[in-house]
């Protein structure tokens, strides 16, 4: 079930019309139709507002698009590779002795960025 169908289902369970939900959100009825038809993806903030009004956890109405799931998986694969490979070089003095220190430093920076991104995405998913 896509996110639009989930929003529609929960809205109907709550006994609200599209117009009533739109009014509570301070949005137009047409944007609710677009959400429910899958033509427009709500922002995270809008998902939170909708979930609060419908009195459901956000994951009840939110579906990660397949591309985002793939990106998360890709980040984890790259991170795991860098983590395994560079565990051998996790001390600063070793980085200085290897023949390609700039590339190693860049890879470590990428590792840190990926780690932070994975952490934030995981935290968001777990909270919702």
UniProtKB/TrEMBL annotation:
Which CDD domains would you find in this protein's record?
HTH_XRE
Q: Which residues form the HTH cro/C1-type domain?
A: 7-61
Is the Methyltransferase keyword given for this protein? no
User: Can the keyword Transmembrane helix be found in this entry's annotation?
Assistant: no
The record's section on PROSITE patterns has:
HTH_CROC1
Under Pfam families, the record lists: HTH_3
**InterPro entries, per database record:** Cro/C1-type_HTH (IPR001387), Lambda_DNA-bd_dom_sf (IPR010982)
The protein depicted here goes by the name Helix-turn-helix family protein
Q: Which organism is the protein's source? A: Clostridium sporogenes
Give the organism's phylogenetic lineage: Bacteria, Bacillati, Bacillota, Clostridia, Eubacteriales
């Amino acid at each position: 079930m896509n996110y639009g169908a989930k929003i529609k289902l929960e809205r109907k369970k709550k006994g609200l019309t599209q117009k009533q939900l739109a009014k509570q959100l301070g949005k137009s009825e047409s944007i609710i139709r677009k959400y429910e038809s899958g033509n427009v993806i709500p922002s995270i903030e809008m998902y939170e507002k909708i979930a609060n009004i419908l009195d459901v956890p956000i994951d009840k109405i939110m579906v990660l698009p397949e591309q985002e799931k793939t990106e998360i998986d890709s980040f984890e694969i790259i991170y795991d590779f860098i983590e395994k490979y560079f565990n051998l070089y996790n001390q600063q003095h070793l980085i200085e002795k290897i023949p390609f220190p700039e590339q190693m430093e860049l890879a470590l920076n990428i590792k840190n960025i990926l780690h932070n991104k994975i952490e934030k995405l995981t935290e968001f998913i777990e909270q919702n």
